[in-house]
Amino acid sequence: MLDDFFTRAMVAGIGLALTAGPLGCFVVWRRMAYFGDTMAHSALLGVALAFLFQINLMAGVFIVATLASLALLFLQSRGSLSTDALLGILSHSTLALGLVMVAFMSWIRIDLMGFLFGDILAVSRLDIAMIYGGGALVLAVLAWLWRPLLAATVNTEIAEAEGLRPERARFVFMLLMAAVIAIAMKIVGILLITSLLIIPAAAGRRFAATPEGMAVAAALAGVLAVAGGLSASLNFDTPSGPSIVVVALILFLLSLLRLPARQAGREAGRTP
Amino acid sequence: MLQATERSGETLVEMRNAGVRRAGRWLVRGVDLAVRRGEIVTLIGPNGSGKSTTVKTAIGVIAPDEGEVRRAPGLKVGYVPQKVTVDWTLPLSVERLMRLTGPLPRAEVAAALEAVGIPHLAAAEVQTLSGGEFQRALLARALVRKPDLLVLDEPVQGVDFSGEIALYQLIRDIRERTGCGILLISHDLHVVMAETDTVICLNGHVCCRGTPESVLRSPEYAQLFGARAGETLAIYNHHHDHTHLADGRVRLADGTIAERCGHDHDHAGERHDAR
């Protein structure tokens, strides 16, 4: 079954969407969209370093994305520049460093477009194994971390005062983000990874009454976006990553249509 | 030093000479305080006097930069911070908020919401609540955990006056029913003080402490809040220094007659300021 490149891409993409959806909810709730973007942009530096030191690509990306998030936390704690400016500096400088390093390494051929925008042709059986193995691990850790992370999202001080150790939860959450970025790179590409975290979560918001419900809705929206996007990519010969994001955007816009009816129901429900 | 030492009960939290320093400035320094089981300790002080910082240090949200803080082993804290904002994108009902930091039986959640007077809002999303409703929900969330120490940072903000009295009544009932210690931050001196065992008056350091009555009479308190702060309902008093005459003119305090008085009787000016 996995002999067909399209089937491999579809299986890989669905595995990714199932992982990215629940994690993306926290990215949206915690307003970390730009933070995620910065980690994702650092992935190209990870790719370059992986080629340089001849280690596994996903491992390289995971390590560099983690280091980028740690660097950001460190600079934030120094408090010299605003978080906004720090994110901008880290995001673009790591991307630029990656591009420059790749250009220097003339002895290897790197399909830059594939890394930046995703390449369904490049998905191998090993990638699928990594996506499902890594994805299952990410989801398991997220489930274990759910209560402290959610409590810290609502209010860090409550979580701290009531013994849930929000700092630890936040650190583990960074590792999970780095892991998802590493496994998402081949499907949607470095520049569009954050969209797969955020857009399905945003689309799922309208259909969810609980945080857990939103995580499921986001995962399903992500699966629909991957299925639709990859099919469109095959039919219209468009790049896989952007096609998936466009379908996710359409799903998000459709979810907005439900708004008026839903809000009326909520108002009615509130009257005692 | 503490007035409530004769009350039985273990010490839940104790701060000795604690201080917190941020960006080269001491937010608070030299704070000694202890909360025992069954005791209500109220912190008062002007804005920026370090009340919230002191409370956060007491429960371990902030580590002290000097001095020491000791908490009873396995202390269970219920905390209502001064400001909680929940992002609109997070679908969170009041009932789910109650279970934020630990699982709870449905009946206990319902009882806690009943106790704070919002049982009808259990299914409402927290973002749709008014300030007072949300405050009650947060209080219910803190007390449903049956904490050893209940920590409330201005628990009545956004609650109307009658609701305020009811909430303080509730806080007193909680203490009597569960025997927990309560550490409270308050602006509303006249309402709070009656229920409090120990009042600690802060302004970067401990200005004065004692029973509500002794603090009310202390010169440090008068200095910090102004001489008239001790008068009950001082803020609501209208200071009448003139007499309205039958012909519409006004006799002022010094006996002279004027066309109008200094203040606006329908309080239109105050409403104007509030905008």
CATH fold-level name of chain A: ABC transporter involved in vitamin B12 uptake, BtuC
Give the quaternary arrangement of the chains. Answer: heterodimer
Fraction in beta strands of chain B: 15-25%
Pairing-aware structural class of the strands and helices of chain B? Answer: alpha/beta
| CATH 4th-level superfamily of chain A | ABC transporter involved in vitamin B12 uptake, BtuC
| Estimated share of beta-strand residues of chain A | under 5%
| Morphology of chain A | globular
Number of helices of chain B: 9
CATH topology of the largest domain in chain B: Rossmann fold
Rg over C-alpha atoms of chain A, rounded to the nearest angstrom: 19 Å
Output mean pLDDT of chain A: 88
Structural class of chain A: mainly alpha
What CATH first level of the largest domain in chain B would be assigned?
Answer: Alpha Beta
Question: Can you tell me the residue ranges of chain A where pLDDT is under 50 for at least 5 consecutive residues?
Answer: 261-272
Strands of chain B, total number: 12
CATH architecture of the largest domain in chain B: 3-Layer(aba) Sandwich
The ordered string of helix (H) and strand (E) elements of chain A is: HHHHHHHHHHHHH
CATH architecture of chain A: Orthogonal Bundle
Contiguous runs where pLDDT drops below 50 for at least 5 residues of chain B: 1-7, 232-240, 262-275
Helix residue percentage of chain A: over 70%
- Choose one word for the global shape of chain B: globular
